[in-house]
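[Q] Does anyone have a clean structure-token version of this?
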Amino acid sequence: MAIALSVLISFFIVLLATPSFIKVAEIKNLFDEPGEARKLHKHRIPSMGGIMIFAGTLFSFMICYPSEDIGYIKYLIPSLLVMFFIGIKDDIIGTAAVKKLIGHLMVAFIMVLMAEIKITSLYGIFDVRELPDWASITLSIFTFVVIINAFNIIDGVDGLAGGVGCIASTAFGIWFLLIGSTVDAIISFALAGALLGFLRFNFHPAKIFMGDSGSLIVGLILCVLAIRLIEFDADAIPRNMMKISKPIFAMSVLVYPLLDTFRIFIYRILKGTSPFAADNNHIHHRLIKLGLNHAQAVLLIYFFNIAVILYSVLVQDLSTSWTFISLAGIVFVLMGILFVVPIKRDSIN
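[A] Here you go.
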């Protein structure tokens, strides 16, 4: 009951509040302006829709929270507030990449060192299991920074970050629901409901963008859920789910933002530019250059994300290492094909 309520409450908060916020954004001139090469929209569109996502998710989760023991939520809520205000500042006046990175690191340190949300093992990937404490902390902080930035980076096409986030939070929610982790399931579905409500206004043609105030929040919550899933006690997992590799499933759920982030970072470094410099060389830009419109590109990415998740669930006879290798091979072959096909120079419109 609490899980169903968490979806409904966050969904209707965002669905009902967003039209009013769009009017306020128009009155106060809170727009994302077109003009930069990386931006695909041609008209001024209200930004900072992340305020609705943040409010809907947090309100729904706290109303439906099933326990008096607040646990790691004691640290998650302050961390969300830090990310929220960094995002708000960036949406209004902009923030230097270095300052944003410092904020991301501060949140990562809070969640890893204080909340102890950290990766302690690779669970058999390349036969690596338990990690020494220094490696666990380093990998966990790196993971937080990467995933938080990943959702910020993919927020470049109408409905992309919101839809991928909704798919990811729903996948995590189903997994936590099936293994009986109610708190994590409620967080997952509260976020999924908020993002689903937001997509009503953000899918192409978008009436509002989530901005950094939304993408940073989504990235942080999904990173916490991913690490919680990876570190979940194996003895508490039902027998029919035991063969599903936890790290492979978590990476599959987040495959698109992780893939695009690593690819674009490597591309920028090889070109001699800053990894944080904005450009129009993302996977979604490539799909549009190939002739797809905004909606088609986004739906194709949704399909790809869901297909990879299903692959990680259905392929259970391989070892963790071979599952990872086979999945990586499929993804890189698809990316190779995508970037070999000739583009249509006049396709961005």
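[Q] Thanks! Anything notable?
[A] The first helix runs from residue 2 to 27.
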